[in-house]
Design a protein that fits this description.
This protein is an alpha/beta fold. The protein is built from 12 helices and 16 strands. The protein has one domain: 3-Layer(aba) Sandwich (Rossmann fold). Bound molecules: S-adenosyl-L-homocysteine. S-adenosyl-L-homocysteine binds next to helix 2 and helix 3.
Length: 358
């Protein structure tokens, strides 16, 4: 039994079963035992691989999106180039290199990284060692980022934020809980109380996920964008419309695992409900572009031309890898990210278009 499971059992013994959202928050973010606090999970040697780690093309195209967005905003200087959940810092490094195409972008940019994991902060510091001191800062939350026009990036960030799960039961929504079963194992259960505040209807037994932590982050992001100018780009696996499905999943060493097994040792995530995030952004007065599939977004930004350019000066073996990365990032196969992943931009209402969104 993991140390975190012992702590969770103590909590359940003291307070009764805990909401799935609290369980997820503990698994990922417990200050000492949470998954992200204790390791760098990204890469072949870890638990999962993300788009920026598959190929430099991903971060470069996101950098082009940021550079064009900055020019569309009237080239504000200074501005905050924010990344939420920057992982190993790879996306930011590739984006900064590509954004040099916009003269003045690098001089105007103050890099602000929102990251809770001390281990990943160190990785980011090493990856981004080329950014001069005083031009890069780390924060535990968005509220600490200075009040400037901002361009924010979030790749596979929202999926790591806790969701509430509610189950339609006897005509009401009841919170899904984590407690102990008759054999003293962690098990899902249901709160006896109904939550009357949920504005959805659904057949008996359906599961509804609410982006409990993601919605306030998006609301704050959009509020700042409306007040100070700016745009945000969120890319993640998920769905464009609110569905009624249990998407809570655990991944460990590149395979699915039981989310209740060995808490703290697996990446526990949920598919991102882009409709809920879009609604939060619109309520704050921002414009929403997309979501579109990651494949459509990357193709609109020119991933095929970029792959050809890279392949033209690569060895045969490297060219094959570039082709493989193109397929993985933008392709439509079952193991590809092109369709499952979506991209969505949130902008100041003055930006009526956003690059990559048609
Ligand atoms: N964007 C990166 C990493 C994705 S993994 C990539 O594409 O490779 C999720 C990232 O979000 C990690 O850096 C993790 O430490 C961070 N993270 C998770 N929960 C967070 C939170 N509540 N606040 C800030 N960062 C968080």
């Amino acid at each position: 039994m993991t140390e975190l499971e012992r702590e969770i059992r103590t909590m359940i013994a003291a307070e009764g079963p805990i909401p799935v959202s609290r369980y997820m928050a503990l698994c990922l973010g417990h200050p000492r035992l949470g998954y992200y606090m204790t390791r760098d999970p990204i890469g072949m040697a870890g638990d999962f691989v993300t788009a920026p780690e598959i190929s430099q093309m991903f971060g470069e195209l996101v950098g082009l999106w940021a550079a064009q967005t900055w020019m569309d905003l009237g080239s504000p200087s200074p501005f905050a180039l924010v990344e939420l959940g920057p992982g190993r810092g790879t996306l930011m490094a590739d984006a900064l290199r590509a954004a040099r195409v916009a003269p003045g972008f690098l001089d105007a940019a103050q890099v602000h990284l929102v990251e809770t994991s001390p281990i990943l902060r160190e990785k980011q510091r090493a990856t981004l060692a080329g950014v001069p001191d005083g031009r890069i800062a780390w924060h535990a939350g968005l509220e600490a980022v200075p009040d400037l026009p901002l361009i924010a990036l979030a790749n596979e960030f929202f999926d790591a934020l806790p969701v509430r799960q509610l189950v339609r039961d006897r005509g009401a929504w009841r919170e899904r809980l984590v407690g102990l079963d008759a054999d003293d194992r962690l098990a899902f259960g249901l709160s006896p109380d109904a939550d009357p505040s949920i504005p959805y209807d659904a057949p008996e037994g359906q599961v509804l996920e609410i982006a409990a932590a993601g919605i306030p982050v998006m609301r704050a992001l959009a509020g700042r964008i409306v007040a100070a100018g700016g745009a945000a780009l969120a890319i993640d696996y998920g769905h464009a419309r609110t569905g009624f499905a249990d998407t809570l999943q655990a991944v460990r060493r590149h395979a699915f695992a039981d989310p209740l097994e060995d808490p703290g040792e697996a990446d526990v995530t949920a598919h991102v409900d882009f409709a809920q995030l879009a609604a939060a952004a619109r309520e704050a007065g921002a414009l929403v572009h997309g979501p579109v599939t990651q494949g459509a977004f990357l193709e609109a930004l020119g991933i095929e031309a970029r792959a050809r350019a890279l392949a033209a000066r690569a060895s045969a073996k490297q060219a094959e890898e570039i082709g493989g990365a193109l397929q993985r990032l933008a392709g439509e196969g079952e193991d590809d990210m092109g369709v499952l992943f979506k991209a969505m931009a949130v902008t100041h209402p003055g930006l009526t278009a956003s690059p990559g969104f048609g």
